[in-house]
What does this fold into?
Amino acid sequence: MDKLVLISADTAIEDLVEHLPASISYLSDRGIRCIRCGEPVWGTLRTAALEKGFSEAELKGFVDDLNGMLEKARPL
It folds into this structure.
């Protein structure tokens, strides 16, 4: 399994949750893809956020937050 080095708006949701399981709660708390209740996870973070009406600026904030979470989750 390759490691996810950096999250972008075009990162596939499947890759995001595989490499950063905490992203499920983060996204769900914002109303993006209810992954826990069986909604298909196909697509990118950008597609999911825009479908829910978030702006590009909000999407950038999500990407920044998720990259911070990814950095903290990495073993030293």
